[in-house]
Structure formats: structure tokens, C-alpha cells
């Protein structure tokens, strides 16, 4: 039997990782109104890369963050230029990006299946099976490292958005794209940068995912719906909302898991999504669309 | 003689030939099972046509919300599964034939679609798609763990008590009628006030609402109607398969199929889903017969979707119409 405080600790630790996983998704939507359904597919791809880096090159998943981040950043910018720029100006733009990224997610899923088959994988660095005890509470060591890495990256991202010119331009574009353009922000470049950052966060999350949760190619559908539900809870396009939503739902899911068993913990996210749509469709920090 | 002349005046010549071709095609399809009765060996043809009819019904239904109103749903497999399990459970525990319970299964799916739509269609835009993915995964989770309906092992249904030679025929007619009904409903909606409202919503929902349209109710009704056909198809398909299993109904792949069929044929047109369904099943038969089913099928589906969104957003019908090359035979709007 796990106590309430233990659940809270585990939930918050998990929520930190979820926040990192979802932040890119939220930013891509906020800056460009792109709903990237392939976000989690790239996350799983990142997990495979980290897995093989560990198996073949003996590179620790925490170290492979340094490979996945830049790799996915560059890949993201290329993808944005090739696939999403031609869609600009389309009527029903978000819908088009959604279908496009849906196709992208399927292609990646198929390729991962062809390359690495459908069996469950889990990277196994030495700390993955150890646990640390603090008094009467415990926390899995891998989870702790992953949370620490997530928080560190989220803080760095926050600093980047607050303190640098590029960061300010990204925030301005999120608030009002047209106005940002008028005051001289190169919206196209900012969009490419934001998409690259979003993809980098997917790649980095993949490294963490590789040793935290078992994965297989089709797993990304479950992940994307979990991530989207916490983005919707926080309010689409609100970065703070995404972090708050991630923490809340992670704690709730650990709680549900301790009562009903781990099978039902994903149901927390879906139920929360329906509740949000019923009670407050714009989410916690969202603005009501006119 | 005079009467004949009058009829010629009333019916324009071109419409006459188009209706004639389509009607004779329908007649051929209705009479085709006679071949199987007279001489065995057409079960494969009947099966392939039956699958085409099913996809026509499913995709035409999807088109009502996904095409006319422009709200992409990835949750339609849930209604398909709902219909299949509803009729399947009645067959196993009560012995009622799915041929009688299929319309009720359709209505159950409609009711469920209405209730779900009331919640999920409160918002505009992308939140709806997200909620349909969640619905799909939630339904999968529930069915996988609900032992009464077999859990993840599924439920075995008794076979239909017909001789092997004839057993495809009732399913063939069931799916044919469902497909015709779906096409007719799709056509009627397209030419009704509701259809006009839905298309207004697809173009600009804010303006539609300002113009006095109850957009939320229109969307919910469209969604509920579109669930009806998925429910019926599910009931018939489950009986035909003789077993129900969450993995055959509730996959994102099944949802992607409906989206892709509509994208290829042409979203928001009456003929688009019909054309797309025929192509989808035809190509699938060719590819699977030639190369077997592999992971690369998923990749091909995804790449096709990307290419269509980038280069042919209107699908085949839309691209032809844009170039004014759309044959009248296929112009049903």
C-alpha cells in the first residue's frame, strides 16, 4: 500500500518528464498553429536511437540526450521547410497540418516496425532497476535522473524564452502572429526555430523514455493522446498550462494506478480530457477562441 | 408516342445516360449473386465486393462529419466496434440474428455518437480530433479488460447456418443495401439545408454562427448520423468474421483508412468516398496478394496521406473538377 505522500512524490517526478514531453507539442501549436500528431512518433524514434546507442555503442541514455537533441533539432527544421512551409496560407491550416503529421506519424511507425520489429524494448542502464530511499519514501533512481534532466532542460528553455531575443520573438509570435510580424519579427524563421526546438524536445524525451517506459512502434498513439490531453487541460498554446497540466494529470494517474491497477492509469488522461471539454473547453490557462 | 416525347423533354439527355449507367450498374450488382447460386466459384468476387460496399458505407458516413463539416474524426472505429459487440452479444447470449439487430446496432451507435458529440463538439477545431483519439484508446482499454465480452481474447460467434456455397450472399446484400442507403443519405444531406450549414461550418465556423446557424447542433447531428452507418457495418462484419476482437476493430489504422479513403476520393463530395473505397480495396487486394501484408503498408499509407495533403488536397474528384475534367458520370454533387 502506497501512502498519499508517496503517490504525490512519484506523480510529481513523473509529471516533470511529461511536461518535457509535451512542451514541444504545445509550443509548435502556440507559435504556428501546427497540431503535430507525429510528435510522439518522433519521441519513440528517439527512444529507439537511445536504445541502440546503449546496446551497440554503450552510450548511456542520459548522455544520448546530447546526440538526440541537436539531431532532432536539425531534422525538425528540415521537415518544417519541406512539409509545412508549402501549407502556409491554406484555408483550414491547422486541419491540414494535423492530417499531414498524421501521415508522417504513420510513415515513421511503419519504418520503425520494419527496422526494429514490433517487440517491446526497454533500455537497461545500470540505474534503471535501482531505487533510492528517503526515510520511508522511495523513488526509482532512473525516474529521479529523468526528472532532474527534464527540469534542467525546461528551466533552460524558460531562460531562453525569457532572456534572449529569439525567445522573446517566439513568445511574441505565440501571442499575436500578425502583430509580431509588424514589429519586425521574422515570423518564418521563428517558426522554423520553434519547430526545431519542439522536435529537439521530442528527441530528448525519447532518450528518457527509452529507460523509463517499455516501447514499441505503435506505442506512440497512446503517448500522443496522453500528451495532447494534458496540453488541452493546460490550455492549447499555453506553456505554463502545459507544465501545470502535466503535473496534475501525472499525480492523478499514479493515484488511479494505485487504486485500480496500472492497466487503468492511461484512462485517467482520457477521462480528464472529456471532463475538460465538458467543463472548461479552453483549458486552465487558455483563452477562449473568438 | 406523344407521351414518350414529353418524357424526353422533362429528363435532360445527359442526366438520362448517367442515371442509366448507374442504375444498370446497381442492377448488375443486385443480380451478381445468381452466378454463385448457379455455379460455385464466385465467393471471392462476392467477398471483395462486399468489403468495397462496407468501405463505401463507412467512408460515406464519415464524410458527413469529416467532409461536409470538416471535422476529422479518428473515433469511427469505436462505433464500428460498438455495432459489432452489440449485435454479437445479442447473438451469443440471446441467439438473435445480427441481420435483424444490425439496424438497432446502428441506432445505438447513433445515440452514443450524439452523446459523445454533445461533449466533444463543444469546442471548435483541433480539440475534437484529440478527443476522438482518446475515445478510441479508451474504448480499446475497456474492451481489452471487459471479461464478459471476452476481453482481449475476444468473443467467438456462431457461424451463419447457411451452406458454404451460399453463406456470403446474405452479407453481400446486407452490405450492398447499407452502402446504397449511405450514399443516398449522403446525397440528400449534401442537398439539404443541413448540408449547406455543415459546409458553411467547414469554411468559417464563426461566420456561420454569426449568420444564425446553431453550429453545435448541426455538428452533433452530423456526427450522430455518420455513426449510424459504422454501427450497422460493424454488426454485419462481426457476424461475417465469426469472432470479435478489440485488435481488429479498434486500431488507429482502421481510423486512418477512413480518412485516407476520403482524402484520396475527395472529402466533402458525394462520389469521393465511393471512388476512394473502391480504390482502397482494389489496391489492397492487389498489393496483399502480390507482396503480403507488411509494416511497409503502414509507411505507404502515411506517405500517400502526406502526398495528397501537399499536392491534391481535393482528392481525385477535387483535382478533376479544378481542371474541369470531371466526367459527369462521377459528378454527384
UniProtKB/TrEMBL annotation, chain A:
Name recorded for this polypeptide: High-affinity branched-chain amino acid transport system permease protein LivH
Keyword Cell membrane set for record: yes
Example of a GO MF term: transmembrane transporter activity
Coiled coil: none
Localisation per UniProt entry: Cell membrane
Record-annotated membrane-spanning stretches: 6-27, 34-53, 65-84, 96-123, 143-161, 192-216, 222-255
Gene: livH_6
Recorded topology in the membrane: Multi-pass membrane protein
Family: Belongs to the binding-protein-dependent transport system permease family. LivHM subfamily.
Chief localisation class: membrane
Gene Ontology CC annotations of this record: plasma membrane
Taxonomic lineage: Bacteria, Bacillati, Chloroflexota, Thermoflexia, Thermoflexales
GO-annotated biological processes: amino acid transport
Record carries keyword Transmembrane helix: yes
Record keywords: Amino-acid transport, Cell membrane, Membrane, Transmembrane, Transmembrane helix, Transport
Automatic annotation (TrEMBL), chain B:
Keywords for the protein's UniProt record, in alphabetical order: Cell membrane, Membrane, Transmembrane, Transmembrane helix
Bilayer-spanning residue ranges: 20-38, 44-65, 77-96, 102-121, 128-149, 169-189, 220-239, 298-320
InterPro entries: ABC_transp_permease, LivM-like
Primary site of residence: membrane
Subcellular location: Cell membrane
GO terms of molecular function: branched-chain amino acid transmembrane transporter activity
Annotated GO CC locations: plasma membrane
Top-rank taxon: Bacteria
Topological relation to the membrane, as annotated: Multi-pass membrane protein
Keyword presence, tRNA processing: no
Protein name, UniProt field: High-affinity branched-chain amino acid transport system permease protein LivH
Organism classification: Bacteria, Bacillati, Chloroflexota, Thermoflexia, Thermoflexales
This protein's encoding gene: livH_5
Amino acid at each position: 500500500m502506497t501512502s498519499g505522500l508517496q503517490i504525490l512524490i512519484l506523480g510529481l517526478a513523473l509529471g516533470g518528464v511529461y511536461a518535457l514531453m509535451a512542451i514541444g507539442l504545445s509550443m509548435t501549436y502556440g507559435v504556428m498553429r501546427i497540431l503535430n500528431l507525429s510528435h510522439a512518433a518522433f519521441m519513440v524514434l528517439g527512444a529507439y536511437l537511445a536504445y541502440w546507442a546503449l546496446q551497440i555503442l554503450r552510450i548511456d541514455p542520459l548522455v544520448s540526450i546530447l546526440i538526440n537533441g541537436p539531431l532532432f533539432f536539425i531534422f525538425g527544421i528540415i521537415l518544417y521547410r519541406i512539409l509545412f512551409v508549402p501549407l502556409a496560407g491554406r484555408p483550414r491550416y491547422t486541419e491540414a497540418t494535423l492530417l499531414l503529421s498524421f501521415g508522417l506519424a504513420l510513415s515513421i511507425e511503419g519504418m520503425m516496425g520494419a527496422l526494429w520489429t514490433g517487440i517491446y524494448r526497454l533500455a537497461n542502464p545500470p540505474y534503471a532497476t535501482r531505487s533510492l530511499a528517503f526515510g520511508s519514501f522511495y523513488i526509482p533512481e532512473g525516474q529521479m535522473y529523468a526528472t532532474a534532466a527534464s527540469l534542467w532542460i525546461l528551466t533552460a528553455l524558460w531562460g531562453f524564452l525569457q532572456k534572449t531575443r529569439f525567445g522573446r520573438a517566439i513568445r511574441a509570435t505565440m501571442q499575436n502572429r500578425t502583430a509580431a510580424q509588424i514589429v519586425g519579427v521574422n515570423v518564418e524563421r521563428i517558426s522554423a526555430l520553434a519547430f526545431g526546438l519542439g522536435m529537439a524536445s521530442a528527441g530528448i524525451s525519447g532518450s528518457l523514455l527509452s529507460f523509463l517506459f517499455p516501447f514499441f512502434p505503435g506505442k506512440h498513439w497512446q503517448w500522443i493522446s496522453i500528451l495532447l490531453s494534458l496540453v488541452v487541460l493546460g490550455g492549447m498554446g499555453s506553456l505554463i498550462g502545459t507544465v501545470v497540466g502535466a503535473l496534475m494529470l501525472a499525480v492523478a494517474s499514479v493515484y488511479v494506478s494505485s487504486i485500480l491497477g496500472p492497466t487503468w492509469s492511461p484512462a485517467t488522461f482520457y477521462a480528464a480530457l472529456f471532463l475538460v471539454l465538458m467543463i472548461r473547453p479552453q483549458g486552465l490557462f487558455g483563452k477562449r477562441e473568438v | 408516342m406523344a407521351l414518350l416525347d414529353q418524357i424526353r423533354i422533362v429528363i435532360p439527355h445527359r442526366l438520362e445516360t448517367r442515371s442509366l449507367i448507374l442504375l444498370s450498374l446497381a442492377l448488375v450488382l443486385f443480380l451478381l449473386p445468381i452466378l454463385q447460386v448457379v455455379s460455385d466459384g464466385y465467393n471471392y468476387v462476392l467477398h471483395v465486393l462486399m468489403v468495397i460496399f462496407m468501405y463505401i458505407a463507412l467512408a460515406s458516413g464519415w464524410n458527413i462529419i469529416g467532409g461536409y463539416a470538416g471535422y476529422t474524426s479518428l473515433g469511427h472505429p469505436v462505433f464500428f466496434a460498438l455495432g459489432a459487440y452489440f449485435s454479437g452479444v445479442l447473438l451469443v447470449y440471446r441467439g438473435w440474428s445480427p441481420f435483424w439487430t444490425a439496424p438497432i446496432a446502428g441506432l445505438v451507435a447513433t445515440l452514443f455518437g450524439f452523446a459523445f458529440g454533445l461533449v466533444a463538439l463543444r469546442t471548435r477545431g483541433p480539440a475534437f480530433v484529440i478527443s476522438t483519439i482518446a475515445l478510441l484508446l479508451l474504448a480499446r482499454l475497456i474492451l481489452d479488460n471487459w471479461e464478459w465480452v471476452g476481453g482481449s481474447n475476444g468473443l467467438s460467434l456462431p457461424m451463419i447456418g447457411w451452406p458454404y456455397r451460399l453463406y456470403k450472399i446474405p452479407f453481400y446484400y446486407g452490405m450492398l443495401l447499407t452502402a446504397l442507403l449511405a450514399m443516398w443519405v449522403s446525397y440528400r444531406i449534401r442537398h439539404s439545408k443541413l448540408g449547406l450549414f455543415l459546409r458553411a461550418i467547414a469554411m468559417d465556423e464563426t461566420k456561420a454562427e454569426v449568420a444564425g446557424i446553431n453550429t453545435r447542433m448541426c455538428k452533433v447531428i452530423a456526427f450522430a448520423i455518420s455513426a449510424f452507418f459504422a454501427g450497422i457495418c460493424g454488426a454485419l462484419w462481426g457476424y461475417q468474421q465469426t469472432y470479435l476482437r478489440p485488435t481488429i476493430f479498434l486500431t488507429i489504422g482502421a481510423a486512418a483508412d477512413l480518412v485516407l479513403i476520403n482524402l484520396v476520393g475527395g472529402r466533402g463530395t458525394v462520389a469521393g468516398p465511393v471512388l476512394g473505397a473502391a480504390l482502397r480495396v482494389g489496391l489492397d487486394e492487389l498489393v496483399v496478394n502480390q507482396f503480403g501484408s507488411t509494416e511497409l503498408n503502414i509507411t505507404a499509407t502515411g506517405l500517400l496521406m502526406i502526398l495528397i495533403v501537399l499536392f491534391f488536397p481535393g482528392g481525385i474528384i477535387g483535382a478533376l473538377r479544378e481542371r474541369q475534367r470531371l466526367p459527369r458520370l462521377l459528378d454527384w454533387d
